[in-house]
């Protein structure tokens, strides 16, 4: 465990970047430091690998004061990833990744073999090994940065806004990759970001810092969303924290309606039997069970269903895997107000109305059943 | 008579191709002076430029020294050194080194300063020692600029090394000084042509060294 114990950092010009900060960073989980620009996140992170020395207070790892450890061996025991990846442009990708093993005295062959292993782990194609950094996209460079930090298998990973410079789609991919890698490797990760959504998506624990380097709240993301400590945290979380909190509730509890579903080759009797006053629309599915679109029952003529005239069904959610937030989003996006639920293979297993989702939200909030983090 | 005729006459005369005052011998002397001066200047300019560039300290002092050194006329310095030290290689080497240190020093300093700080930060965060950061991270990226500083120093040395002849030493300056004295313009033009050719050869050598020494990753991304 990394323990930050009432640490203050005063820069020579008098700026107090971090003010009596105390944090206990649990092992084998992702702890996110989040806050507005200039609130001391980078300074805090850099005190952990002694790129910055605290003015007051101590930092210990498993009880040992880091200020007593030789600085370079301390740093070699921690991976360090920065915003612009900071790759060595004169070295090939594989040699960039092999840097720390080489520093630790591994042979060139062994270090390179290890580097290739890591390329695979972070989702980089082996064909990129001999390329130079300028030949890679920003997202790929960032993956190299992560691989380089993991190369010597350090127990700790320090990441300073590693995904801030890439576009949102690539960023999402990198975040998912990080969570996947973390599942496999179980590192102690300290992750700095100014993006509260990123903090909530990645963090097991989230420390919100306020300007002046003071801790505003330290809590798991769901707790942050349900009970922000003060108005600063509440403002920082943004206006839609109620919606975002739904990410922590599973869609499993939603009761699906299975009646308003007809296959595209249904007979007139089948269509008639599905018609129900509670569900003004019917969802037409293809022969493969995937959704095609909504229609009013009277517009459906057996044997002559024109799929291009159906109403769009928006984006389905995966029942049980996706969160209530995804289900609500699916319902809001659907012109009929009904969300389409599918199984893991994308086959329709039911539909659910906004009203039903609303009831589920209310009861979930009432039960405070927000402990399990759900994907999506 | 035009310059080309002089050039033809000079290089056509077989007497100019051997002996103590022959082209090969004078060329060799000139190359020796130049390499010695460049070696000494690099031995001073490179380490100081690398260290100040890496630490970022002393940049102002360095610029001041470089400007002062540039303001010194090489020929004046030669005369002064001759008066102080008499004949010999030293009075020649001093002005040449004084001439060559500023471009090497200032360019090396600037080259290291201008390296992107993020890889340096990453390297430090990985636990690289400072000398290793300088030599393995900064220098490879700064190399094209560093070599260009050495190249301008080398060119200036090659053309200025002609002054050696004024203090009774050899080199290609011999043809120019003797030619002027003897009003043998064929010799003057021949000597000047040889200096120009040597300067071009120097450029070619640096081009080749840059091709070989600079990583393709740096060459293309620059
Ligand atoms: N080397 C430094 N010298 C003086 N002030 C600094 C230095 N580094 C950062 N600061 C100041 O300390 C505060 C916190 O900076 P930083 O830790 O980089 O914040 P963040 O990473 O949260 O944006 C800012 O006000 C910043 O200007
Ligand atoms: Mg920062």
Topology:
The complex is a heterodimer of chains A (376) and B (222).
Chain A: E1 2-10, E2 16-25, E3 30-34, H1 41-48, E4 56-61, E5 64-65, H2 71-76, E6 78-81, H3 93-97, H4 99-103, H5 108-121, H6 138-150, E7 156-160, H7 168-185, E8 188-193, H8 196-202, E9 205-210, E10 214-219, H9 221-226, H10 231-237, H11 241-245, E11 261-263, H12 268-274, E12 282-285, E13 291-295, E14 317-318, H13 324-333, E15 338-342, E16 348-353, H14 354-367
Parallel strand pairs in A: 3-8, 3-9, 6-7, 7-8, 11-12, 14-15
Antiparallel strand pairs in A: 1-2, 1-4, 4-5, 9-10, 12-13, 15-16
Helix pairs in contact in A: 5-6, 13-14
Chain B: H1 3-12, H2 23-55, H3 59-71, H4 74-85, H5 90-113, H6 117-125, H7 130-160, H8 173-181, H9 185-213, H10 216-221
Helix pairs in contact in B: 1-9, 2-5, 2-7, 3-5, 4-5, 5-7, 6-7, 7-9, 8-9
Bound molecules: adenosine-5'-diphosphate and magnesium ion.
Task: Give structural notes.
With 376 residues, chain A is an alpha/beta fold. Chain A folds into 2 domains: 2-239, P-loop containing nucleotide triphosphate hydrolases (Rossmann fold, 3-Layer(aba) Sandwich), CATH 3.40.50; 261-360, Roll (CBS-domain). Chain A is 33% helix and 22% strand. Chain A has a 6-stranded mixed β-sheet with strand order 6-7-8-3-9-10, sandwiched between helices. In chain A, strands 2-1-4-5 form a 4-stranded antiparallel β-sheet, with helices on one face. Chain A is elongated. With 222 residues, chain B is mainly alpha-helical. Chain B has a single domain (3-215), classed as MetI-like fold, CATH 1.10.3720. Classes of the chains: A alpha/beta (376), B mainly alpha (222). The interface between A and B is medium-sized, with 31 and 23 residues. The complex binds adenosine-5'-diphosphate and magnesium ion. Magnesium ion binds next to helix 1 of chain A. Chain B: Residues 27-206 form the ABC transmembrane type-1 domain. Chain B: Belongs to the binding-protein-dependent transport system permease family. Chain B: The chain crosses the membrane at residues 31-50, 62-86, 157-177, 189-209. Chain B: It is a multi-pass membrane protein.
């Amino acid at each position: 465990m990394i323990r930050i114990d009432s640490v203050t950092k005063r820069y020579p010009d008098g700026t107090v970047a971090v003010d009596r900060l105390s944090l206990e960073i649990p092992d084998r989980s992702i702890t996110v430091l989040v806050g507005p620009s200039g609130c001391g996140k980078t300074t805090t992170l850099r005190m952990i690998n002694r790129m910055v020395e605290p003015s007051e207070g101590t930092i210990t790892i498993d009880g040992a004061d880091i200020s007593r450890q030789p600085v370079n061996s301390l740093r070699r025991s921690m991976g360090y990833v920065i915003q612009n990846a900071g790759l060595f442009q004169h070295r090939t990708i594989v040699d960039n990744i092999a840097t720390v093993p080489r520093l630790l005295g591994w042979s060139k062959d062994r270090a390179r073999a290890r580097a290739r292993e890591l390329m695979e782990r972070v989702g980089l194609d082996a064909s990129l090994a001999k390329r130079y950094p300028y030949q890679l996209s920003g997202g790929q460079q960032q993956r190299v940065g992560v691989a380089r930090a993991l190369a010597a298998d350090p127990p700790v990973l320090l990441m300073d806004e590693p995904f801030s410079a890439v576009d949102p789609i690539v960023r999402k991919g990198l975040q998912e990759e990080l969570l996947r890698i973390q599942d496999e490797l179980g590192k102690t990760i300290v992750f700095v970001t100014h993006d509260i959504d990123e903090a909530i998506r990645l963090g097991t624990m989230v420390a919100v810092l306020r300007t002046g380097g003071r801790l505003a709240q330290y809590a798991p993301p769901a707790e942050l969303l349900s009970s922000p400590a003060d108005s600063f945290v509440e403002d920082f979380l943004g206006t839609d924290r109620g919606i975002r909190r739904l990410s922590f509730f599973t869609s499993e509890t939603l009761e699906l309606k299975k009646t308003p579903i007809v296959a595209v080759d249904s007979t007139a009797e089948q269509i008639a039997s599905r018609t129900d006053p509670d569900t003004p629309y019917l969802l037409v599915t293809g022969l493969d069970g995937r959704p095609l679109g909504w229609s009013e029952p009277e517009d459906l003529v057996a044997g002559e269903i024109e799929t291009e005239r159906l109403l769009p069904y928006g984006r389905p959610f995966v029942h049980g895997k996706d969160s209530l937030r995804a289900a609500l989003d699916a319902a809001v996006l659907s012109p009929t107000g009904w969300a389409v639920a599918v199984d893991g293979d994308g086959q329709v297993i039911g539909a659910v109305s906004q009203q039903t989702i609303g009831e589920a939200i209310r009861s979930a909030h009432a039960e405070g059943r927000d402990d399990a983090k759900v994907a999506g | 008579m035009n310059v080309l005729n002089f050039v033809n006459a000079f290089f056509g005369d077989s007497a100019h191709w051997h002996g103590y005052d022959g082209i090969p011998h004078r060329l060799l002397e000139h190359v020796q002076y130049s390499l010695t001066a460049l070696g000494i200047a690099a031995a001073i300019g490179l380490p100081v430029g690398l260290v100040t560039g890496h630490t970022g300290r002393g940049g102002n002092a360095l610029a001041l020294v470089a400007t002062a050194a540039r303001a010194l006329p090489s020929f004046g310095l030669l005369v002064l050194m001759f008066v102080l030290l008499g004949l010999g290689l030293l009075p020649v080497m001093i002005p040449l080194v004084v001439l060559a240190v500023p471009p090497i020093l200032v360019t090396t300093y600037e080259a290291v300063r201008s390296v992107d700080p993020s890889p340096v930060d990453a390297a430090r965060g990985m636990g690289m020692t400072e000398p290793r950061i300088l030599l393995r991270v900064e220098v490879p990226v700064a190399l094209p600029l560093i070599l260009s500083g050495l190249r301008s120093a080398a060119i200036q040395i090659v053309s200025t090394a002609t002054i050696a002849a004024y203090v009774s030493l050899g080199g290609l300056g011999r043809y120019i000084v003797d030619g002027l004295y003897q009003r043998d313009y064929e010799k003057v033009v021949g000597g000047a042509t040889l200096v120009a050719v040597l300067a071009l050869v120097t450029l070619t050598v640096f081009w080749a060294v840059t091709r070989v020494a600079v990583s393709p990753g740096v060459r293309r991304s620059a």
